Amino acid sequence: MRWILGVVLLVSVLVPVSLAGDEVQKPSPRGASPEALARIILGEDGPQQNFAAQVLQQSDRSTLLAIQSAIRKQLPDAAKLAATRSPAAPLVTDPTKSVDLVNCEIRLLEVDAGAAFLSELIGTDEADATSSTLKVQYLDDPQLEVILRAAHKSSRIRQIIAPRLTVYDGQHANVSMLDQTRYIESYRIECLSGTTVAQPVLGLVHDGIVIGLRPTTSQDKRYLTLELEGTSASVVKPIRSDQIRLLGRLHPLQRPHTELESWRSTVRIPTGGSILLWGAFTPRGRKGVGLAIVTATAFTAKAGAMLPEVDLTPAEPKAPAGAGAPPRVKRVGK
Questions:
Q1: Residue 253: what are its φ and ψ, rounded to 5°?
Q2: Are 180 and 174 in contact (CB under 8 A)?
Q3: How many CA atoms lie within 13 A of 297 on its CB side?
Q4: In the chain, at which end, N or C, are there fewer CB atoms within 10 A of the end residue's CB?
Q5: 130 Cβ neighbours under 8 A, 6+ residues apart
């Protein structure tokens, strides 16, 4: 709770498959809504919070005040959710005990094709295929095989990343696909060889996609509840540039603007099942349509199988260098 209150104070200083849980926060023309930013700030996903920090830096006084108000409204619900949510399984060091784990595979794909190809690929109509809001669809094995085969053979769809994560039951994890853009943030006045110069100081801004998930296994180990949330961030290009006068000359000063779109969904699937997500997490400015396939499998493993094997046999003392080698004879004369 202390860190949550700290976030509120920080903004104050700035003056600032059940698909019923789907919620998409649509961005305003200037970026994400204050409610979406407040939810990200009160969350626990570091990369998404970094996106929110970029937006805070570019926000004006009225926007910061709106975000502060949204944080205060959501704070009680966030505290209740944290208290009622099942904690992640603790780290088990006893190798004889079993732990509940979930293996998650998140495939991010991009489709460079028309609406007809996309609708045929995912088995929906063209309006849903090109929708800009979050869409979630359960995939059976044949449907999953069709999409993965197309990703390997078709030039119009490509798989960008496909990381595999093994997490404890109830543990939060995320997958990020980020780009970095450097910009001129400020200037530093230096004296070089008797000459005073203004050296540019470069800042770093991120854009891309972050998908976070928290799997919870049912008591009979047959079903998984996936709490999914994600954010797509887009840096408006070209970056806006102003002019400042330093040492009698004009120098460019860049002010990047980040636009966010945030979504979340709660889905119940059988263990080993897959879901397809599209629409909301495609960054603006990209030509292709982004798809995500999430596959989750619950299993139980012995803690000893997860711990590194350590050989406790005492090592034999090594002989000093050259101890076993034949003596070298130094010949003098002939």
A1: -135, 120
A2: no
A3: 8
A4: C
A5: 115, 118, 289
How far apart are the C-alpha atoms of 274 and 333, rounded to whole Å?
A: 84
Which tokens sit at 227?
Answer: 């709490």
pLDDT at 31: 54
Q: Which two tokens stand for residue 147?
A: 């999409």
Backbone dihedral region for residue 247 (phi beyond 0: left; psi -120 to 50: alpha; all else: beta): left
At residue 317, the 3 state secondary structure works out as coil
Angle ∠(182,184,188) on CA atoms, nearest 5: 130
CB–CB of 294/213 below 8 Å?
yes
d(CA 283, CA 278): 11
> pLDDT tens-digit profile of 198-250?
999 999 888 888 888 889 999 888 999 999 888 888 888 889 899 999 888 89
Reduced DSSP (H G I as helix, E B as strand, rest coil) percent helix, strand, coil of the chain, to 5: 25, 40, 35
CA dihedral 66, 67, 68, 69 (to 10 degrees): 50
pTM: 0.67
Residues in the chain where the model's pLDDT stays below 70:
1-31, 81-96, 113-115, 126-132, 280-288, 303-334
**Please, are residues 36 and 51 in contact by the beta-carbon 8 Å criterion?**
no
In whole angstroms, how far apart are CA 154 and each of 58, 120, 140, 148, 184?
41, 14, 21, 10, 40
